[in-house]
Amino acid sequence: MARPRTPKAKAEVTGQAAVRRKKFEGRNEPEVNDELGNAPDWITDTEKNKAREAWETLRKEIPWLNSSHRMLVATAANILGRMIAGQEVGVQAMNLFRQCLGQMGATPADASKAGAVGKNGESEDPADEFFQ
């Protein structure tokens, strides 16, 4: 199975767009100018589910999300909110949450595919020293 295509917005945030300019220059993607924004009114915090808090966590930790991702974020926020509230979350819900994160490009594997920058501001690829 082919690797999922890295969204241009994610590539810009992680620096991959600068490294692989030609790959992303000609890419035509839907232009969404609206940010992810605050959680919809129907997402509420309760004793058993801290979905609004989870929404804010996802919004801050995945900066390339925009308004076209709202339904996917709502699904992930619902599951994460249950975890934050200390509720039991089944295997199926955890798997769905993992899939949501993968689709949003928020897993460590996705970050490494996008060429995320390490703590010291440099690439973490051990082969870099041989190809510089």
Output the radius of gyration: 17 Å
Spell out the helices and strands N to C.
HHHHHHHH
Class computed from helices, strands and strand pairing: mainly alpha
Number of strands: 0
Overall pLDDT level: 82
| Helix coverage percent | 40-55%
- End-to-end C-alpha gap: 31 Å
Protein name: Terminase small subunit
Biased composition (Acidic residues): 123-132
Region (Disordered): 1-42, 107-132
Molecular structure report:
It comes from Nitratireductor kimnyeongensis. This is Terminase small subunit. Residues 123-132 have a biased composition (Acidic residues). Residues 1-42, 107-132 are annotated as: Disordered. This protein is mainly α. It has a domain at 44-116. The chain contains eight helices and no strands. Helix 4 (51-61) crosses helix 5 and helix 5 (70-84) crosses helix 6.
How would you briefly describe this protein structure?
This protein is mainly α and 132 residues long. It has helices spanning 8-14, 16-19, 21-25, 51-61, 70-84, 91-103, 108-113, 128-131. It contains 8 helices and no strands.
Layout of helices and strands:
Elements: H1 8-14, H2 16-19, H3 21-25, H4 51-61, H5 70-84, H6 91-103, H7 108-113, H8 128-131
Helix pairs in contact: 4-5, 5-6
